[in-house]
Amino acid sequence: MSLTLTDVERDPTGEAAEEMKGSIEYGWNPRSITISYGATTVRSEDREEFLAALEPFEGLDRPDATTSD
Predict the structure, then answer these.
(1) pLDDT tens for each residue of 42-53
(2) Verdict on whether the full-model pTM lies above 0.85
(3) CB neighbour class for 16 (10 Å; exposed up to 12, middle 13-18, buried from 19)
(4) What is the pLDDT, as a whole number, of residue 69?
(5) Pair 10, 46: CB distance under 8 Å
(6) What is the sign of the dihedral through the CA atoms of 22, 26, 32 and 33?
(7) Rounded CA separation 46/35 (Å)
(8) Which residues are bridge partners to 25 per DSSP?
(9) Cα 29 to the center of its chain, rounded Å
């Protein structure tokens, strides 16, 4: 789940408002709240195959999380 709050007027440099100018033409709101979500599922008939495919990775250290920022 992801939540994004946008208010370009809160940027004292004016850079956000400048970047938003082109987007307003497409209907983007310079003050908005965006909620996004996603889900990944495995069909029940594919569950065993999925679990078997994960076995080589069991016990490995997970990489550090990253963000798109």
Answers:
(1) 999 999 999 999
(2) no
(3) middle
(4) 66
(5) no
(6) negative
(7) 30
(8) none
(9) 19
